[in-house]
Amino acid sequence: MPRTIFPTRHIHTLKTHNGPVNAVTFSSSGGTYVLTGSSDRAIHLSRAVPNNSNSPTVVETTTPIQKYEAHGYSVLDIAVTADNARFASVGGDRQVFLWDVEQGITTKRWTGHNSRVEAVQFAGDGDSVVVTGSADTTINIWDTRSSSYKPIQTLTEATDTVSSLHAHMGSYSIASGSYDGRARIYDIRTGKTTVDVLAHPVTSVRCSSDGNALLASTLDGYIRLLDRMDGKVLNAFGGEKGGIGKRHSYRNSELRVRSVFAMGDAVVLSGSEEGAAGAAAFAWDVVKGEVIAAVPVGEKVKAVSCVAWNEGVGDWAAGCSDGKYLVFFEVWDTCADCCS
Amino acid sequence: MALKRTRAALEADLQAEQSPYAFYGTPLPPLDEAVRDDGSFVPIWKQEVRDEQGRKRLHGAFTGGFSAGYFNSVGSKEGWTPTTFVSSRQNRAQKAEQKRPEDFMDVDDLREQEESRQLQTADEFAGFGSTELDATRRAGLIDILKTSGETMGVKLLKKMGWREGQGIGPKVRRKANLHESSAPGGAAEETYLFAPENPPMVAFIRKTDRKGLGFEGESRLESRNASQPIPDAEESDSFFGERLAIQGKAQPPKPKESRRGGLGVGPLNDTGSDDEDPYSLGPQISYNKTIGGDKKKKKKVKPEPTIASANPLLNSKPVFISKKVAAARGAGGFRKCRDGRLPLDGFILADGIMGLSISEKKYDPPVIPEDWKPAKEISSEKRDQSKYVSTADAAKASSLNPTSRAALLGEDQLPGKSIFDYMTPEAREKIVKLTGNANLPPALGEKAPKGYELPESQKRKDLWDLVPKLDKHIAAQALARAVSGWMPYQEDEKKRARYQTFLQVSAGTRSTLPERVERSSTDEWVIEMQEFCRAAEVFKPMSGVMASRFTSSSTAPKIVSDAPDSAESGLSRPAEKPEDPAVAAAKIGMFGPMTRSTVPFYPSRLLCKRFNVKPPDSVQLDPGEQPEASTSGPGTRLQSAGFQADTGPKQLVSQDVMNQLLIDSLGYLPTADGLDPSASGQPANVAPPPPPVVVEPERNDALEAERPGDAVFKAIFGSDDEDE
């Protein structure tokens, strides 16, 4: 394995938002920038690593590079295209916005959802479609290329809020997690929907990069790694395993906490709700299922609602749900050259 | 006229002209302000007409006109007051007040009326023991106190069975007194119970006349008729004769038969005798018009003791009996009885000894010796009063039940059983609860005795009657709904099954009785079925647009709007959704086949295009996507024309045809990608995840597949012209 040490050094803190941070995304290639969406209705573009990142102390940034303000309610999710030219955002105003990063304006606005939109993802060839999941229990697929104001397709299988989406282009599939306790994977190529019952509201789904596994966080405090072939659980993270002998324990019972793969699908990274000593971000070894890192983000923080892993550099970010600030943890490994 | 002065100037001059001779001082004002005595001109409208008394004679139209009433008497005390106008529209039906006769009477009339008034009793009142015919008694004050109608006593007697004309007392057994003429035959020996004869009323006749005692006057004269037997019933007047005769009373005097005729008497009826007045009316009371004319006759008649007077003294009044007669009596020893026969030997008539003092002699009861003691002692004296127990109390204190009493009395046990013997313990509990009496015999729950058991068919019929009637239509609808997942009682599998059975029975697809819970009573069963009935009404499907608005949720959201609270409507509320087996498996961690399910997904063609994947076979050609689809190569067109639109067996057939065609034309079966997406015929659900496809925008396998032979297109499209 090229790298075994999970980076835990805190190098950058951004306090640009006035409200809880609901979404955090690195720019696609390189991950130089980070986009954050907050309940203060704004989307901020900031540098992920400050220029003077070599300083031993934690750098604090209070002003973003760019502010994108069009939402009328809190921003709930952000997705960036692969070419970094556009990004999409959704929020409580039931709108789906497609932004031009350079100009800072919306190029498309889709209003087809009847309720809060919880998740957004780019999908398709060349990020040609935008997939959004909403609290109206539907998934809408929007076409970025046509000027149609109607979605290409609406998926209505879910019976409760669609809380998270992940489009995996390798398998031409869209994974969705819903509060009805099911993770659905829509395979466009084979025309099948695979429904995995998890029995608890799903807050986060994420496909592994090879498309064979599905990471799903549920409100019973577990993150499960499901085999996409037959639906078996390959490994489960969280629960009591994280809390034994540890100061922090992974908790997820009521908030939408996102989880991602990290370090080339070798690590599962997830936020958490407030534990005994504040919230923390957790990292598990995928194979062993052990907690390899529990990084506290502060006493006052109630939850780490979202995390993002930047594969290019090997750093990660965590958005804190309760504090007014966005915290970056970024650690350079001892050898900087071993980024995959 | 220029010289005409104005009135004001005239008035001003008046002052000067009124007292033309007042040279000094101020002239006196005129006597009357309104009247001038100067004789100057006064216009007509200022003049007033007055009569000699100084009264105004002319009035306005509303105050009487020229001369209202009798010389202006209107409105004065003596005059006429006009009635105020009353609109008949407002008071339409109001009548003029009722006038009484007194209103039109003058004083004399009123006084006469007052005098004519007298205090009188109504005729219905009569005195005690009197007849209303007795006119002499009517004036008495006592008459007020009694009505002559049916008195209360009579009413009471009638209620007790007494009838008018009967005597009072117990019934008497005697022979039927059919008629005197019917001789006592053999059959007449039979005796019957008859009401006693009505005894004659004792009437004390007040002596109001000045005739001597015992003077009977005219009635004596008539007794001639009464004493003689009536020769014929016809002879008596059919109206006044026989019917008026009251049984037991003295026959009233028979009116003398009078000639009867029609109205008036014609000359033919004239018998020529003058002493009969043909026009005499009413019952002719024949008087003795000749004094002493009947005397001889009268003497011949033997005076008989009258029974009209019931005074016993009358019998013992001193009667002169001639010596001869007395001797005859004494010699004969006996008077004759009424029937004319002699009394039996050794008997004398009671009449004869009445005068003796035998009847008055009384025997005193024997004197009881002082030291006499009765042999029997009255036991009640010995009884202790405090220990007295009434029969009811004693019965209550007895611990015997009917069975043991019967045993004590030696009676045979009755075969009957108590109702409790047939009751179930639950039913007995119910009664205990209702009555609050816990002291009921135990319920034995026996079966009905032989012969009383309901035949099986009857039982079934009764049970069928208990099944609530549900509309067949509704039941069928609810069943159809149940198939698609809309089903109550999802938390209770067995109940759901029963519900389904009930629906089937109601829909007529099943002929057996609806199932019931084991060990449940019929009542519970019926209650449950009624609940099913309501549930079916609630769960029957909505039609059309409404139905499409609701999706059947398989899990969490507990939409209970279509299933109200159980406490309110009796519907069992599907509060807990039935645990999906998948959910149950997931909860216990059994992830895998249990939690995995696959449903078809139909991505739109545009979505597939955006994903740059070939649409799955199941995807229908979207009409809106026609232009884009047509831009694809002929292979795609083939798909859209033949394969994608059809599924199932038809597709297989067409595939066979296709293969045959290809073999025919090419000699081998090509395996081009664009042609056989479904040619492998593998089951759709197996579908191994295809290997990751490297997407090359410049190259499309489907488009660049080997083109099939022309024969294929010829076979399909029929003409070379259309081949591109």
Please characterize this protein's 3D structure.
The complex is a heterodimer of chains A (340) and B (724). With 340 residues, chain A is mostly beta strands. Chain A has no helices and 29 strands. A five-stranded mixed beta sheet of chain A has the order 5-1-29-28-27, with no helix packed on it. The C terminus of chain A is likely disordered. Chain B has 724 residues and is an all-alpha fold. Among the domains of chain B are: 34 residues, no CATH class; 35 residues, no CATH class; 132 residues, no CATH class; 110 residues, no CATH class. In chain B, helix 14 packs across helix 15 and helix 23 packs across helix 24. Chain B is flat, with a radius of gyration of 66 Å. At the A-B interface, strand 17 and strand 18 of A face helix 19, strand 3 and helix 20 of B. Strand 18 of chain A pairs antiparallel with strand 3 of chain B. Chain A: It is found in: Cytoplasm. Chain A: Belongs to the WD repeat MORG1 family.
